[in-house]
Amino acid sequence: MFKNTIHFSVIITLIAIIKLSCSSSEETKQENAASEDSLKYLISIPPGTADIKAEIIEFSEEKENYLCQIKILEVFEYGASISPLPPGTEIKAYIPISLVERESQKIKEKEIILARISQIRAPGDKEYWEIIMFNK
Question: Are 38 and 48 in contact (CB under 8 A)?
Fold first, then answer.
């Protein structure tokens, strides 16, 4: 009888250990998922910006900028606090000439570009867009 009690105690102890390790594993999975979400948030793009694929419809040179009419083809990622840009939307965007020269980017009509744009809100509820970097 004493031998059966020892076997029973050992079995109960093993079941308890297995149960604890399984629940610990679930908690670890939840913690890892939370960490991945936090990491994704930390490496996301800055607020007020979006990574896009767009077509240059037309452009003109103004002082230190190109003023372009672009058509959004695809948005890869949005930063916080930016207006939605559905595919097919046309917007006017400034591109600093210095950025174009530094990146050796060509600006011409019907050109497809990959870029990060920034939405800038000016006083009086006016907003404009600026291409702040070209993505490769």
Answer: no
Could you please state the CATH topology (level 3) that the domain comprising 49-134 is classified under. Answer: OB fold (Dihydrolipoamide Acetyltransferase, E2P) (2.40.50)
Predicted TM-score (pTM) above 0.70: no
What is the Cα–Cα distance from 12 to 6, expressed in whole angstroms? Answer: 10
Q: Tell me the DSSP string of 3-16.
A: HHHHHHHHHHHHHH
Mean pLDDT (10-residue bins), the chain, 136 residues: 63 71 60 54 80 93 88 94 92 89 80 92 81 87
Domain extent listing, the chain: 1-43, 49-134
CA dist., res. 13 & res. 108, Å (int): 74
Integer Cα distance of 136 and 127 in angstroms: 27
